[in-house]
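Researcher: Good morning. I'm working through a list of sequences from a screen, and I'd like to move beyond sequence-only analysis. For each chain I'm collecting a predicted structure so we can compare shapes side by side. This is the next one on the list. No need for commentary yet; just the structure.
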Amino acid sequence: MTTGHSQIEKIVLVIHGVGDPRAGDTLNRFARSLASEEKPLVEKQATVWLTEKSTDPDRTKTFPTHVRRLQINDNEVEMAEVFWGDLSQVRRGIVGLVYGLFQILFGLRYVAYVAADQPGAAAFYLKKLGLISSRMLHGPVLAVAFFLALITVAALATDMMWEGSYKHLVWTHGVVAACAVLSIVIATIGQKLTNSRVIVRFWRWVITVAMYSMLLIAIKAFYIDVCFPEINCQSCRHPGLIWYCRVQIILLGLLWFCESAIVIAMGGCWGAACLHPRVNRPAIHVAFLLPALAVGIWGYALPMLWVTAREGVVRLHHISEFAHAFDEAIPLLGVQFAMLVITAAAAIVVIARYFVWRSRNSIDTFNAGSRAPRLIVNVVQQWGLAGSTVVGVSLVFALCLMNIFGIEYRDSLFGQVLAESNKYAVMFLAPMAGLIFLSLRHLRPAFDIILDVVNHFYFRSTLMEDALEDDDEFDIKETTFESGRLYFSRRDNIHNRMKRILVYYRDRLRHRPELVIVSHSQGTMVAVEVLNDPEMAWLSGSFSKTSLLTMGSPLSYLYQNYFGHLYDSLNSPSWDHLRTRVDRWVNMFRIDDFVGQEIEFPMLGHSLQTTPMLAKDKNAMTQTCSDHPLGCRGHVNYWDDVEAIAVIKQEVFASKTKSRQRRSA
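Model: Good morning. Structure tokens for this chain:
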């Protein structure tokens, strides 16, 4: 496959985007779409194995690059796929979707932290409070809930074998001790099975809660049982194992009280940060709303799990003390239900407007100025979520205060309303939870898009071993460690794959072919950032011309809009490397694409230097950078879209005669 390199006129790198393709699938789809009926594909796909940096110095790590040779019109082309789906940790099937959903919930903190990394004291404290909120939510809150669930399962199992066993003291202590030991074993194994720092921290908290429970056994057995024997009577409200459950529930309530206080403080910092003259407001909105959303989701999910178990497990109906233990807790479900109604109403309005626009508009109306409503962080959704968060968190905070001071919330009017709304919450939310679970596979595109953004901003602290000199051409010391920035490890691993494929052709081709990069969705960010990397200065000397084709790119519509403090205008000096290396940029997008739209290309007169992308006259500039709107078909399946393929053939793979005629014209 790689012999006869001197005949190759174009090297085409294919970079997939959103979704979960198998290695080589995107390359095959694109190649079949480009092949004409007169010259169908007959060449087989080959695999080139390249090395990449490994965390283990004694082991060589490799990754496959699928390549194939074909002739498009009279152009000899070799195509290579930049596959990064295995690094993005996207998985197939229902189990994979659930795992991906947990990845999103645990990973939103990275996006929020980066969004708040802006000037001003308010933004600084918003960033720190968001980090504390996330660590508390994904640490002690979930760890206590995990241990509470373990005790409940153990009580059910033992009660089935020995009815009423949960009331006996010695048996109770033994069950709690066994649950603590089992928690430590599970957490130890769990830490070894994951590379995620957030999940590792969660397992450490599970061990902490288990040790706390062991200490609680000693305190109860040697102090409370001796000094306050009336607490242990089997006829009291919290006998035996129920007492331990009640203690965990109280602890969980205190943690939610602290979580609510943090979110309220974040709201104050959010409002103050928006007043700073140099702050990027969309990013500040993201920095507040994402942690608030995470708190809301877990605040709905945890009580919902208990209600589902209580209503669905027949055995729990025979243990009335369990129901009493949870019914005495504050009515979180009622609060979450109110928040969900507000958020859902805003989302329904936005989605309805989107589909109405989609049915009434075309490319002509788009060119006339009509634009589809944003589906990602729409203003209506943003303020709906913000309003429901303020209301919901304030209610939880007030209820927690009433619980701490011994005030019965049912005595107040709003407490009665919330208690009543708990009934409606159970009635509506339980079927809704089941419906969401059954609809997971249909929500897969949305999960994939969100997970791509989470992985893009996933970071870890730079370690000293990352900065050590080695034989790696792409050493992170040069790009991250010395400047003191966060190390976006997953993004760096993905970028390095593209770089190594380019090095492969640089070192093996004696002539200078044209480089064409075709990318979709998040893959366009990979292409743009690699082309702008200072380490890639040799590109212009290795290839005669570089053309960039982007499809459904989120660069301007998503990243420059919501993270403008990180992604400046293409006129800024931070993009000088990109402008000097790209000779032609063709951007295709569907007018209803809710992820990628037009690229805000650099304007004449704003660059610090004359570059290929910034031609000297307006007509040449039009030929250098161009947007191509396509019909309404959403965000996926660009690789075999008839309109997109027609634009690609016309702009990049036209015959040599037509190309010369176009240049002379």
